[in-house]
């Protein structure tokens, strides 16, 4: 316990009075204080001025991070025949139809992204209550309901990140690993923020981007200047 207390104390001191930093300053601070024995994820949380309970204030989208996420993404594809073969050839981890539906209904969800061809949606639709809350439901708006299965699998494996505002108006995602170069992390962060900015809904009123926070998986969070995060 002594080692843990010492680490926590050091982190508190390092982050004391730190707020509204530039993206570069925040990344440097977080990397310097990421002491877990694994390669922690750099996470972003954005507090938006929206109420997702209203359809015209929902924020949802997808972005391909320029430097990837550093995470091995497991992809499941609902498809039959040639499209199933295409998915397998593209590197999908799980491919199926009714059998995949039954696996998910049993509570076994061993994937991070779910893709479906349009003809599979009557089957996938039965899983809405399971996949929806986990943000895994295929959706044509983010390119996961498509006939171009190969492109969708490639995108998922190549660093594409989906985002969706939670009921409190918060968008959260992983934008890289602590081991990434600081410049690459900063580039990923600004790409993500830019995608969220472009997804501003028509019903949003007042300030859209209220606060931006960065943290590592096991580390403390720090607020980031919205102006710095939105610099192109």
UniProtKB/TrEMBL annotation:
SUPFAM superfamilies from the UniProt entry? Ribosomal protein L1
| Organism this protein belongs to | Roseinatronobacter ekhonensis
| Role this protein plays | Protein L1 is also a translational repressor protein, it controls the translation of the L11 operon by binding to its mRNA. Binds directly to 23S rRNA. The L1 stalk is quite mobile in the ribosome, and is involved in E site tRNA release.
Which family does the similarity line name? Belongs to the universal ribosomal protein uL1 family.
Q: What is this protein called?
A: Large ribosomal subunit protein uL1
Gene Ontology MF terms: rRNA binding; structural constituent of ribosome; tRNA binding
Q: Would I find Protease among this entry's keywords?
A: no
Q: Which InterPro entries match?
A: Ribosom_uL1_bac-type, Ribosomal_uL1, Ribosomal_uL1-like, Ribosomal_uL1/biogenesis, Ribosomal_uL1_3-a/b-sand, Ribosomal_uL1_CS
Name the Gene Ontology biological process terms. Answer: regulation of translation; translation
Per UniProt, the keywords (alphabetical) are: Repressor, Ribonucleoprotein, Ribosomal protein, RNA-binding, rRNA-binding, Translation regulation, tRNA-binding
Query: What is the gene called?
Result: rplA
Q: Where is the signal peptide?
A: none
Q: Which Pfam families match?
A: Ribosomal_L1 (PF00687)
> How does this polypeptide assemble, per the annotation?
Part of the 50S ribosomal subunit.
Report the GO terms under cellular component.
Answer: cytosolic large ribosomal subunit
């Amino acid at each position: 316990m002594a080692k843990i207390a010492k680490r926590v104390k050091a982190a508190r001191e390092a982050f004391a009075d730190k707020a509204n930093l530039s993206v570069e300053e925040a990344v440097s601070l977080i990397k310097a204080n990421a002491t877990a024995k694994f390669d922690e994820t750099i996470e972003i949380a954005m507090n938006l001025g929206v109420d997702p309970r209203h359809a015209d204030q929902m924020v949802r989208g997808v972005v391909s991070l320029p430097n990837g996420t550093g995470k091995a993404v497991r992809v499941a594809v609902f498809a039959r025949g040639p499209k199933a073969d295409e998915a397998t050839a593209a590197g999908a981890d799980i491919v199926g139809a009714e059998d995949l539906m039954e696996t998910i209904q049993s509570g076994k969800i061993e994937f991070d992204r779910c893709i479906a061809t349009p003809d599979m949606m009557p089957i996938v639709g039965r899983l809405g209550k399971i996949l929806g809350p986990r943000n895994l439901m295929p959706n044509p708006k983010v390119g996961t309901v498509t006939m171009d299965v190969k492109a969708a699998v490639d995108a998922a494996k190549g660093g594409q990140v989906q985002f969706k505002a939670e009921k409190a108006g918060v968008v959260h995602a992983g934008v890289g690993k602590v081991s990434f170069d600081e410049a690459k992390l900063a580039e990923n962060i600004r790409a993500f923020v830019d995608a969220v900015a472009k997804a501003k809904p028509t019903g949003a009123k007042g300030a859209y981007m209220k606060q931006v926070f960065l943290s590592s998986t096991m580390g403390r969070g720090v607020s980031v200047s919205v102006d710095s995060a939105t610099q192109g």
